[in-house]
Structure formats: C-alpha cells, structure tokens
Amino acid sequence: MRVLLFTTFDLDEYIDEALAIGASGFLLKSASPEELVAAVRAAAAGQGWLSPSVTRRVIEAFCPAGGCG
What we know:
Elements: E1 4-7, H1 12-20, E2 25-28, H2 33-44, E3 49-50, H3 52-62
Parallel strand pairs: 1-2, 2-3
C-alpha cells in the first residue's frame, strides 16, 4: 500500500515523520488539483512526491550548506 500525507501543516517534524514511516509523499492542502493528481499518479507508479514548497527544506536537511552537489 502506498500512502500520501495530505495536511495543512507545513512542519519539518511532520515531513520527517511521514518519510521515516514510509509515506510515498507529502502534500499540502494548498496544492492545486493538478498537483494532487500528479502526486497520486506518482505514488501509484511507485515513485515519491513532495510538495514543491517543502522540497528545498528536505534537500537542505540531507545536504547542509549545499554539500551534496
């Protein structure tokens, strides 16, 4: 089963926990209908999805000070 976390809360702890427990993605309720459809399709295809507004923070958490690239 694939799960997308769909929430109004744009909190780092929620993102971290969702990904740690194996969620296929994290989506904010402010997402457009097109983004929601894209996220569901990505999850159904076995891919991950992050709302663009949280993507930069996730990258920075894994690559502090731009050290990953």
